[in-house]
From TrEMBL:
Keywords: Lyase. Catalyzes the formation of methylglyoxal from dihydroxyacetone phosphate. The lineage of its organism: Bacteria, Pseudomonadati, Pseudomonadota, Gammaproteobacteria, Alteromonadales. The keyword Lyase applies. It comes from the Bacteria. CDD domains: MGS. It comes from Lacimicrobium alkaliphilum. This is Methylglyoxal synthase. One of its GO terms (cellular component) is cytosol. The active site is at D62. Substrate binds at H10, K14, T36, G37, T38, T39, S56, G57, H89. PANTHER family: METHYLGLYOXAL SYNTHASE (PTHR30492:SF0).
Amino acid sequence: MQKNLALVAHDHKKPDLIRWAQAHKEILAKHHLVATGTTGGLLADALALPVFRYKSGPLGGDQQIGALIAEGKLDALFFFWDPLNPAPHDPDVKALLRLCSVWNVPVACNESSADLIISSPRFEDPGYQRAIPEY
């Protein structure tokens, strides 16, 4: 079953995300990939896979991905954020991570958590349905 996956990375973490995505290309190729602007371009080039690109994070891309979460159209977020270099759009980043918690969307913030999510037997189990809260 194809999932909608978002891949996002702050500038200093883009090489880490690219390397991680290349290591998991076979799995990622089975799914619909979306990303914020620059990250999406880098991923499309590195993976030779289609990646739908939203705006750059500071220009609204984080909010566009947040809208996918709120609409129930995102299955997982892989967001390699940089905790040591605050971004000018930090409130948008916090809102995006908050939405993942609100809607119970799996989110990986670094390579280790991304490895655990993508290697989980439930990740590609068509019978697994995450619980979606009713508010």
